[in-house]
Structures are given as structure tokens and as C-alpha cells.
Design brief:
With 106 residues, the protein is α+β, with helices and mostly antiparallel strands. The protein is 60% helix and 13% strand. Helix 1 (22-37) crosses helix 2.
Length: 106
Amino acid sequence: MSNVTLEIAGRKYTIACAEGEEPHIEMLGASIDKKLSELDNLVGQSPERILLYASLLLADELHEAKAATPSPAPPAADAETAEKLEAMADRLETIAMQLETGASAP
């Protein structure tokens, strides 16, 4: 185990993490601190409330990012479905030709 000291909103927090995760934890802490620095009305707030605001802002960003991510493509049709669709397309073409032929006759 390793420890990382983060400075968030002017306060220091020591966090335990697995060996090698220190840079990632530091980056996350910097992200939280940056988010809090964007808020003007935190003067006089308790550390808990400040971290609550940061959590809510980051959760909202995550929610918006997930909502903006397109859904995965539908699975490819199996062979049986493809054959049925092709047969339907052939049938529709036949009907369209019959309608065109019948519509152009006097």
C-alpha cells in the first residue's frame, strides 16, 4: 500500500492506494480541486459540504457523458433473418413492378 496527499479546496487529505496508482489518484484529486475552484460561493462552507458539491458536479458530468454516448450497434442479423428479409424485398419488388405495369396500361 501507498499513500498520496491531495490538496483539495486548500485542505490536505491523505489517501491510501495500491502501489503504482499514485499518479492516477493525484490526477483525480486535481480534477476535484479544479472543479471546486470554478465555484464562487464556497467561502465559509464546511469541508464536507464542499466535497459534497464537488461530488454532485462530477456525478452530473458523468451522467451527461453517459447520456451523450451512443447506444451500441444492434447485433448483426443471423442468416435465417437475412434470408427472410431478402425474400420480403424480392416480394415487394415484384408487387411494385406489377403496380407499375398495371398503372401504365390504358
